[in-house]
């Protein structure tokens, strides 16, 4: 069971990935928990990661410390959304 507001956070993450990476609406909408991200999406290079994290901070009103981020957070869409939910609603 997801906490109240989780679906809004998930859609925000999806929108950030779409906007920062220049993905089509259909491509971003097809992301599910198992969709691989870093290393699988050519658009998501190290520079784009910084942009995604900064935009998540802005849109979700959260603070992401460098110590919060490791390869696991960006492994797939589910990991990134769980991280964002924990930061925004936790």
Characteristics of this structure?
90 residues, Non-ribosomal Peptide Synthetase Peptidyl Carrier Protein, Chain A, globular, 4 helices, single chain, 54% helix, mainly alpha
Descriptive notes:
Helix content is 54%, strand content 0%. It has helices at residues 6-21, 25-29, 46-60, 77-89. The longest helix is centred in the N-terminal third of the chain and has 16 residues, at 6-21. It starts with 5 loop residues before the first helix and ends with a helix. The mean pLDDT is 96.
In short:
This protein is mainly α and 90 residues long. It has helices at 6-21, 25-29, 46-60, 77-89. It is built from 4 helices and no strands.
**What kind of sheet is the major sheet?**
none
Q: Ends: how far apart? A: 14 Å
Shape assignment: globular
Low-confidence stretches: none
Portion in helices: 40-55%
Counting DSSP H or I runs of 4 or more residues, the number of helices is: 4
CATH architecture verdict: Orthogonal Bundle
CATH superfamily: ACP-like
Q: Number of domains in the coordinates?
A: 1
Strand content: under 5%
According to CATH, what is the topology? Non-ribosomal Peptide Synthetase Peptidyl Carrier Protein, Chain A
- Count of beta strands: 0
Name of the CATH class: Mainly Alpha
Alpha-beta content class: mainly alpha
How large, in whole angstroms, is the Cα Rg? Answer: 12 Å
Report mean pLDDT, rounded to a whole number: 96
N to C succession of SSEs: HHHH
